């Protein structure tokens, strides 16, 4: 295993992480470009780059272009993608996905096992089997791995390595020691983590902008696959994912309509997840389409109606499409209002299914939110990256950031 140590305490090593983050965001860079990006001195950056290159974390990739006429061309540096790898495992309703990522955040390999997970013990055994298969087929040795991340649907305690409540399989019980059980059956000296899929997806937001590490960001979204329609998210404060005991970011189970009687998967009623479900919106649309003969949604046909038809029609001014979106917009506004009151974020990122809704949806949300928060500087934006891609990237980023945030890597 690629060995790690204690969390960063030395300011010198914290600067190493800053340089790595700069290379991750910008790709090939000269020392001068890194200096401009991170604000450290030329001497400090040159020393850090020299040490990181010696350790194999960074490598030289030739020379850049000189900015001075006749001047010496500067060396270009980048992350060494082969320095270490991580393995991401996503446990879904339809099976288990295994992905290998390198240090440059590129996916090297992916395998999928379409299975029905009927028991917790069966899930652990299947997961261990998939991990072993993925490593073997990808040609990755134990000593090349810096960690394994398990993405799970449900309430998760990252700190304890447990699934507190498996929302899609409540019959499995509670406080399931997933990390411990997988480590014991793998018999490999590799750190194993587990995290909620929505928090992982939201965490990938840190890859989008260099300023994200200085902001408070709240991500909220729905699984983009209509048959799932789960909702969740995360809170990121100055580059750190708020994890607590597993409840932070569970926006899907905020109560937004106390009078709603349709049960959520958590067993309660009136949750944000159930009241804004894509399935629920489509069901109503298909049931009531015949009552709206002038709606352009009739052109699609009842059984072929999908969310993107509703989004497109709403953007074109179709009254029935906007009626279908109205409860979703109303409940998004309730949750976002509460988020602003609780966190006063710099940015709220809407990802997943409704990130494809277009201008009508987000303009209505902004108008209604800022009708009350007149002086708020919070930005409400879409992140239109595919949900599963976000989940994989967020999982890999969390593993690498945990590994690179340790003193022993640099000493």
Explained architecture:
The chain is α/β, with parallel strands linked by helices and 411 residues long. It folds into three domains: 11-79, Winged helix-like DNA-binding domain superfamily/Winged helix DNA-binding domain (Arc Repressor Mutant, subunit A, Orthogonal Bundle), CATH 1.10.10.10; 85-201 and 390-409, Nucleotidyltransferase, domain 5 (2-Layer Sandwich), CATH 3.30.420; 209-385, ATPase, nucleotide binding domain (Nucleotidyltransferase, domain 5, 2-Layer Sandwich). It has helices spanning 11-26, 31-38, 42-55, 120-138, 178-186, 197-203, 272-275, 278-288, 307-315, 319-343, 359-372, 387-404; strands at residues 58-63, 75-79, 85-92, 95-102, 107-113, 145-152, 155-157, 162-165, 192-196, 216-222, 231-237, 240-241, 347-352, 379-383. Helix 6 (197-203) packs across helix 12 and helix 10 (319-343) packs across helix 11. The longest helix is centred in the last third of the chain and has 25 residues, at 319-343. The chain is globular and about 70 Å long.
How many domains, in number, for the residues? 3
Into which percentage range does the β-strand content fall? 15-25%
Named CATH topology of the largest domain: Nucleotidyltransferase, domain 5
Mean pLDDT: 89
C-alpha Rg, in Å? Answer: 23 Å
Q: For this structure, what is the CATH class of the largest domain?
A: Alpha Beta
Helix content: 25-40%
At a glance:
The protein is an alpha/beta fold and 411 residues long. It has 12 helices and 14 strands.
């Amino acid at each position: 295993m690629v060995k790690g140590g204690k969390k960063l305490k030395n300011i010198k090593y914290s600067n190493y992480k800053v340089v790595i983050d700069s290379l991750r965001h910008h790709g090939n860079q000269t020392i001068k470009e890194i200096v401009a990006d991170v604000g450290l001195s030329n001497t400090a950056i040159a020393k850090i780059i020299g040490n990181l290159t010696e350790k194999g974390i960074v490598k030289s990739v030739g020379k850049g272009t000189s900015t001075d006429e006749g001047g010496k061309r500067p060396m270009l540096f980048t992350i060494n993608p082969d320095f270490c790898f991580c393995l991401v495992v996503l446990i879904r309703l339809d099976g288990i996905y295994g992905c290998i990522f390198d240090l440059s955040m590129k996916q090297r390999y992916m395998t999928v096992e379409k299975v029905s997970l009927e028991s917790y013990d069966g899930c652990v055994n299947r997961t261990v089997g998939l991990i072993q298969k993925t490593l073997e087929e990808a040609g990755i040795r134990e000593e090349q791995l810096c960690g394994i991340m398990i993405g799970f649907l449900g309430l998760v305690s990252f700190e304890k390595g447990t699934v507190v409540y498996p929302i899609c399989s409540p019959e499995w019980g509670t406080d399931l020691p997933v990390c411990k059980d997988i480590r014991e059956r793998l018999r490999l000296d590799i750190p194993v983590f587990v995290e909620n899929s929505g928090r992982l997806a939201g965490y990938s937001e840190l890859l989008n902008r260099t300023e994200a590490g200085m902001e408070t960001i709240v991500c909220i979204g729905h699984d983009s696959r209509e048959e799932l329609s789960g909702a969740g998210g995360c809170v990121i404060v100055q580059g750190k994912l708020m994890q607590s005991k597993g409840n932070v970011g569970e926006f899907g189970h905020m109560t937004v309509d106390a009078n709603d009687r349709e049960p959520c998967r958590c067993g309660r009623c009136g949750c944000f997840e159930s009241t804004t479900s894509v399935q629920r919106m489509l069901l109503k649309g298909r049931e009531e389409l015949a009552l709206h003969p002038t709606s352009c949604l009739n052109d699609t046909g009842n059984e072929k109606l999908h969310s993107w038809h509703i989004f497109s029609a709403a953007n074109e001014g179709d009254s029935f499409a906007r009626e279908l979106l109205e409860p979703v917009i109303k409940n998004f506004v309730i949750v976002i209002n509460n988020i602003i009151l609780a966190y006063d974020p710099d940015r709220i990122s809407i990802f997943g299914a409704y990130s494809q809704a277009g201008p009508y949806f987000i303009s209505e949300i902004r108008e209604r939110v800022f009708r009350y928060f007149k002086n708020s500087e919070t930005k409400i934006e879409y992140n239109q990256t595919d949900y599963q891609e976000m989940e994989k990237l967020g999982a890999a980023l969390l593993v690498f950031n945990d590994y690179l945030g340790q003193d022993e890597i640099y000493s």
